[in-house]
Write a structure and sequence with these properties.
Layout: E1 2-5, H1 10-20, E2 26-29, H2 46-61, E3 65-74, H3 95-105, E4 115-125, E5 131-142, E6 158-160, H4 172-178, H5 180-195
Parallel strand pairs: 1-2, 1-3
Antiparallel strand pairs: 3-4, 4-5, 5-6
Helix pairs in contact: 1-5, 4-5
Keywords: Hydrolase, Magnesium, Metal-binding, Nucleotide metabolism, Nucleotide-binding
Binding site for Mg(2+): 69
InterPro entries: dITP/XTP_pyrophosphatase, ITPase-like_fam, RdgB/HAM1
Length: 196
């Protein structure tokens, strides 16, 4: 059975495909289906945004669709950038500008208050039927200098609890096993199996 993963983020699609590769479904991305208009991410929560993206994809393409919304919640910034993570510096997907702005905002914050968590909501929408939302969280801390070349987004400045390496220094397999997105997707797998 085919499941559409509704994302245009190449890093995120590769991550999702790796995690679902051993599952009961064939994963297709937006590049594999006819184009349809993207809904703006206007939800106040990760769950609202994930559901909206999955609903749009399921309605437009007619396949069960998985979408996620995720971001970084920094303790010293009262959980921000949160749902605004990808466009924190004003332009969607400008990782370098987002990192620079976030580190600038944290410049005067003491190291012991640099706690943060990556948060993910993943939604599965079956056309005309089931809607499921699951969550994953990956706690850690922010470091002041980016390190590592793997991953994307805020990975180079996020050190997970129990680690000395940033998320961008972990192997793809290590990241998949521990990450917020990995946790959310693993929670979705039983729901995907129920479809087959």
């Amino acid at each position: 059975m085919k499941v559409l993963v509704a994302t245009r983020n190449a890093g995120k699609l590769a991550e999702l495909r790796r995690m679902l590769a051993d599952g009961p479904v064939e994963v297709v991305g937006l590049a594999d289906v006819p184009e349809f208009p993207d809904a703006p991410e206007t939800g106040a929560t990760f769950a609202e945004n994930a559901l909206a993206k999955a609903r749009d994809a399921a309605t437009a393409i007619g396949l069960p669709s998985v979408a996620d919304d995720s971001g970084l919640a920094v303790d010293a910034l009262n959980g921000m950038p949160g749902v605004l993570s990808a466009r924190w510096a004003g332009r969607h997907g400008d990782d370098e500008a987002n990192l620079k702005l976030l580190l600038g905002q944290l410049a005067d914050v003491p190291d012991e208050r640099m706690g943060a968590a990556f948060v993910c909501a993943a939604a599965l929408v079956v056309p005309g039927g089931l809607e499921t939302v699951v969550h994953g969280e990956w706690t850690g801390r922010i470091v002041r200098e980016p390190r590592g070349s793997g991953g994307f987004g805020y990975d180079p400045i996020f050190v997970p609890d129990g680690e000395q390496r940033t998320s961008a220094e972990l192997s793809p397999q290590e990241k998949d096993a521990a990450s917020h997105r990995g946790r959310a997707l693993r929670a979705l797998i039983p729901h995907l199996r129920d479809l087959t």
